[in-house]
Amino acid sequence: MATLIYTSGTTGKPKGVIITHANLLHQIQTLGAVVQPAVGDRVLGLLPTWHTFGRTAEYLLYSQGCTQTYTSIRHIKADFKQVKPHYMVGVPRVWESIYEGVQKQFREQPASKQRLINTLMLLSRKYVQNRRTANGLSLDHPDTSALRRLGSRLLSFVFWPGHALAEKLVYGKVREATGGCVKQLISGGGSLARHIDLFFEMIQVPVLVGYGLTETSPVLTARRHWRNLRGAAGQPIPQTDLKIVDPETRQALPLGQKGLVMARGPQVMVGYYKNPEATAKVLDSEGWFDTGDLGWLTQDANVVLTGRAKDTIVLTNGENIEPQPIEDACVRSAYIDQIMVVGQDQRSLGALIVPTIDALQQWAASQNLHLAIPGEDSSAPAGATAITLENEAIQKLFRAELNLQVKDRPGYRPDDRIGPFRLILEPFSIENGTLTQTLKVRRPVVRERYRDMIDGMFA
Question: Which of 149, 153, 202, 357 is the most buried (most CB within 10 A)?
Answer without folding.
Answer: 202
